[in-house]
TrEMBL record:
BP terms from Gene Ontology: isopentenyl diphosphate biosynthetic process, methylerythritol 4-phosphate pathway; terpenoid biosynthetic process; thiamine biosynthetic process
Transketolase-like pyrimidine-binding domain residues: 319-483
Cellular component annotations (GO), alphabetically ordered: cytosol
Annotated PANTHER family: 1-D-DEOXYXYLULOSE 5-PHOSPHATE SYNTHASE-RELATED (PTHR43322), 1-DEOXY-D-XYLULOSE-5-PHOSPHATE SYNTHASE, CHLOROPLASTIC (PTHR43322:SF5)
Record flagged with keyword ATP-binding: no
Official protein name in the record: 1-deoxy-D-xylulose-5-phosphate synthase
Uppermost EC category: transferase
One Pfam family in the UniProt entry: Transket_pyr
Region of interest: Disordered: 92-112
EC number: 2.2.1.7
Entry function: Catalyzes the acyloin condensation reaction between C atoms 2 and 3 of pyruvate and glyceraldehyde 3-phosphate to yield 1-deoxy-D-xylulose-5-phosphate (DXP).
Residues where thiamine diphosphate binds: H73, S113, H114, A115, G146, A147, N175, Y287, E370
Functional pathway: Metabolic intermediate biosynthesis; 1-deoxy-D-xylulose 5-phosphate biosynthesis; 1-deoxy-D-xylulose 5-phosphate from D-glyceraldehyde 3-phosphate and pyruvate: step 1/1
Length: 659
C-alpha cells in the first residue's frame, strides 16, 4: 500500500519518518500528474508546494490551527493530506472543487479564489483567537509572491505589525510567478535574493544554511512597490524602507527541503508573534513538461498526456473569444497610436500578450492590483491616451470604486475588456463573471456592449476605443466563439434584428452570446404558432431607443442574459420602458442571485432554467394566458418627454458610429 493511501488525516503524518515523508512527497507528485492530466486543473502551482504543504500539516494541527491559502489554486496537496483523494471528478459537477471549499472539509477556511486577501483573513482570525482566549491556536497564511503585488496585502501587514502578540505565521511561497513571471519592484528584489551566493549555497544545502541562522533573525519589513522586497533580513543586508514595522523573518528557505521547512515552521510556531517564512519554490517541480513551459509552467491545464504534457483533445477549429480580442487589439493599435493596454498579472490569459509582442512599450502589467490598474488608466486617459484595461469579469468587482469615481466621474475614455464573463464553469463560485452587468451599469454615462460573435467583438471593440468621454465595456464569455450570426437589418441606433416574424407576440432581447439560444427559442415558439422578433442590442447600456419602440409593438418582452438577473439588463429595460410609458410585460431571464457551483457551463445553465426548451415552455404559457393588448407605437415626438433618461449626449457618439 502506498503511503499516500494511508493518509486520511493530517495527524497520520506524525507516524512517518523523514525518509517516509520524502517518499510521500514523490507519491503526491506522481498522483497529481496522473490525476490532473485526466481532468485538467491547476497542476504547476501544486507541484511546487508539495513539501511546503507536508511541512505545514506536519507542524500545525489543522483544523484547530487555521490554514488560509491565498487564491487557493495551490490547495490540491492540502486536500490530499486532509482525506480527499478521489480526484476523478476534480472541478466537475459533484466532484472536488478546484479551490478550498468549506462544504468539503472543516480543514478549508477561505473559499474565495481572489488573490491578496489571505493576510487580511489571517489578521482577523488571529485577532479573534486572541480576544476569545484561544491562545493555543495558530493561523497559517500561505501567500504567493505574485499575490504580494496586491494592495490588500500591505494593508494587512500594516495591521499585523501593530500587534505582535498573536500566533500568526505567514509563508511566502516565492516561485517568481503568479500566472506569469512576477513583475515590478518585488520581482527585482527577489531575483537579487535568488542570485546571491548565499542563496545559491542554501539551494545546494539549505539545512546547513538554516542551522547557521540559529534563532529567528530580527527583520524589518520593507516595501518596494508592493512586494516582498519589504522584508529586511540579515541574509539580504538591504537598507530599510519601512523600519517602523517589525515582523520576524526566517529565510530564505528551500521550500523543497522538507527538513528545512519543518524546522523553520517549528521555530515560527514557537515564536509567539507574527513570523514570515520565506520559502523559495519551483512551480511545476518534478514534471519536465511543466518546467519547460515558458508561458506559465502549466499553471492551469486541460486534459493532457501525462508523459508528454501535450493536450489530449484535438484543438477546435473555432477561435477563442480571447484570441479574437487579441488579434483585433493589435489591429486597432496599429491604426491608433494612442491605444495602450493594461492588465493585472494576466497578460497571456486576457490575450494582451500579442499586443505586448507587437508594441512592448504600450502595455503595462501592474501585478495583482486591479484598483491601481483602473485609476492608472484614468490618468493615462487624462494624458491623451486611450487605455484598454483587460481583466477577467470576476476581477473587475475588485475595482468598482475606481471605475465609478476615477473613470466614470471624470468622464475618462477608458475601455474595459472583460474576459470570462457570465458562467465560466469548473472554477466555481468566485470565478463566474456574472456580476459585471449589474454592478457596472449603475456608473453614470457608462456604455456596455456584449458581442454575440467574433465579428461583433471586432466591431464593438473598434467602437469602444473611439469613445473618449466615458467608460466603455466589451464583455465576452470563456471558450470558443461559435459561427457569426448575421442580422437581417440594423436599426439607426445600432440594434441588430436577427429574426422578425410578421406576428408580433414576443420580443426576445438577447444579450451577447445568448443570441444563439434566443434564436432556438424563437424556433420552438414558431412551432407553437407564436411569432417572435429576436434582437441583439449590441450596446445594452444605455438602452437603445429602438428597443423601446420594438417593445411597444409586442405583447411580451423577454430578456435573456448570462449575468445575474437582479439589477441586470432586463431590469434596466423594464425601468426604461416604464419611464417611456410603455406597459408591455417584461420577463427577465438570467442567473439567480446565488453563488453558483462548479460544473460545466451547460450543466449550470440547465439547472437555472436557461435552455431553449425551458424558456420556450414558459413563454408559451405566458402568451396563451396573456390578455394585455398590443400597445400603439410611441411617436417620435413623444421621445424626449416620455424618455428623459436617455440624453442626446449619451447616445450621439454610438449613433454616429453605426451609421
Amino acid at each position: 500500500m502506498s503511503l499516500l493511501g494511508g493518509i486520511n488525516d493530517p495527524r497520520d503524518l506524525d507516524a512517518l519518518s523523514p525518509a517516509q515523508l520524502e517518499t510521500l512527497a514523490g507519491e503526491i507528485r506522481a498522483f497529481l500528474i496522473a490525476e490532473v492530466s485526466k481532468t485538467g486543473g491547476h497542476l504547476g502551482p501544486n507541484l511546487g508546494v508539495v513539501e511546503t504543504t507536508i511541512a505545514i500539516h506536519k507542524v500545525f494541527d489543522s483544523p484547530r490551527d487555521a490554514i488560509v491559502f491565498d487564491t487557493g489554486h495551490q490547495s490540491y496537496v492540502h486536500k490530499l493530506l486532509t482525506g480527499r483523494q478521489d480526484f476523478s471528478g476534480l472541478r466537475q459537477k459533484g466532484g472536488l472543487a478546484g479551490y478550498p471549499q468549506r462544504s468539503e472539509s472543516p480543514h478549508d477556511v477561505v473559499e474565495s479564489s481572489h488573490a491578496s486577501s489571505s493576510l487580511s483573513w489571517a489578521d482577523g482570525i488571529s485577532r479573534a483567537f486572541e480576544m476569545t482566549g484561544q491562545n493555543d491556536r495558530h493561523v497559517v497564511a500561505v501567500v504567493g509572491d505574485g499575490a504580494l503585488t496586491g494592495g490588500m496585502t500591505w494593508e494587512a501587514l500594516n495591521n499585523i505589525s501593530d500587534d505582535n502578540s498573536r500566533n500568526l505565521v505567514i509563508i511566502v511561497n516565492d516561485n517568481g510567478r503568479s500566472y506569469a513571471p512576477t513583475i515590478g519592484g518585488m520581482a527585482r528584489y527577489l531575483n537579487t535574493v535568488r542570485t546571491k551566493k548565499g542563496y545559491h549555497d542554501l539551494h545546494q544545502s539549505s539545512r546547513k544554511l538554516f542551522d547557521r541562522l540559529g534563532a529567528p533573525a530580527r527583520a524589518l519589513y520593507r516595501g518596494a512597490r508592493g512586494g516582498l522586497h519589504g522584508f529586511l533580513s540579515r541574509v539580504t543586508n538591504n537598507s530599510s524602507l519601512y523600519a517602523n514595522l517589525d515582523i520576524k523573518y526566517l529565510g530564505p528557505v528551500d521550500g523543497h527541503d522538507l527538513g528545512a521547512m519543518i524546522e523553520a515552521l517549528q521555530q515560527a510556531k514557537q515564536y509567539g508573534a507574527p513570523v514570515i517564512v520565506h520559502a523559495i519554490t519551483e512551480k511545476g517541480r518534478g514534471y519536465q513538461p511543466a518546467l519547460t513551459d515558458v508561458a506559465d509552467q502549466f499553471h492551469a491545464v486541460g486534459q493532457i498526456d501525462p508523459e508528454t504534457g501535450e493536450p489530449i483533445s484535438a484543438p477546435s477549429g473555432a477561435p477563442s473569444w480571447t484570441g479574437v480580442f487579441a488579434d483585433e487589439m493589435v489591429r486597432q493599435a496599429e491604426q491608433d497610436e494612442t491605444i495602450v493596454g493594461i492588465t493585472a498579472a494576466m497578460l497571456r490569459p486576457t490575450g494582451l500578450h500579442k499586443f505586448a509582442e507587437r508594441f512592448p512599450t504600450r502595455v503595462f502589467d501592474v501585478g495583482i492590483a486591479e484598483q491601481h490598474a483602473v485609476t492608472s488608466a484614468a490618468g493615462l486617459a487624462f494624458g491623451g491616451l486611450h487605455p484598454v484595461v483587460a481583466l477577467y469579469a470576476t476581477f473587475v468587482n475588485r475595482a468598482f470604486d475606481q471605475v465609478l469615481m476615477d473613470v466614470g466621474l471624470h468622464q475618462a475614455g477608458v475601455t474595459f475588456v472583460l474576459d470570462r464573463a457570465g458562467v465560466t464553469g469548473p472554477d466555481g463560485a468566485s470565478h463566474h463573471g456574472m456580476w459585471d452587468l449589474a454592478i457596472l451599469q449603475v456608473v453614470p454615462r457608462i456604455r456596455l456592449s456584449a458581442p454575440r460573435d467574433a465579428e461583433r467583438l471586432r466591431e464593438e471593440l473598434a467602437e469602444a476605443v473611439r469613445v473618449t468621454d466615458a467608460p466603455t465595456v466589451v464583455r465576452f464569455p470563456k471558450g470558443n466563439v461559435g459561427p457569426d450570426i448575421p442580422a437581417i437589418r440594423r436599426t439607426v441606433d445600432g440594434v441588430d434584428v436577427l429574426r422578425e416574424d410578421a406576428q408580433k407576440d414576443v420580443l426576445i432581447v438577447a444579450v451577447g452570446p445568448m443570441a444563439e439560444l434566443s434564436l432556438e427559442v424563437a424556433e420552438l415558439l414558431e412551432a407553437q404558432g407564436i411569432g417572435s422578433t429576436v434582437v441583439d442590442p449590441r450596446w445594452v447600456v444605455p438602452v437603445p431607443w429602438s428597443i423601446i419602440e420594438l417593445s411597444d409593438a409586442h405583447r411580451i418582452v423577454v430578456t435573456i442574459e448570462d449575468g445575474v438577473r437582479v439589477g441586470g439588463i432586463g431590469t434596466r429595460i423594464r425601468q426604461d420602458l416604464r419611464e417611456a410609458g410603455v406597459d408591455t410585460a417584461v420577463t427577465e431571464l438570467g442567473l439567480p442571485d446565488e453563488f453558483l457551483e462548479h460544473a460545466s457551463r451547460s450543466e449550470i445553465l440547465q439547472r437555472v432554467g436557461l435552455t431553449p426548451e425551458q424558456i420556450a415552455e414558459d413563454l408559451v404559457a405566458q402568451v396563451r394566458g396573456n390578455k394585455i393588448p398590443i400597445a400603439r407605437p410611441l411617436s417620435d415626438a413623444g421621445h424626449a418627454a416620455a424618455y428623459p433618461s436617455l440624453k442626446n449626449s449619451d447616445t450621439d457618439t454610438l449613433h454616429r458610429l453605426v451609421r
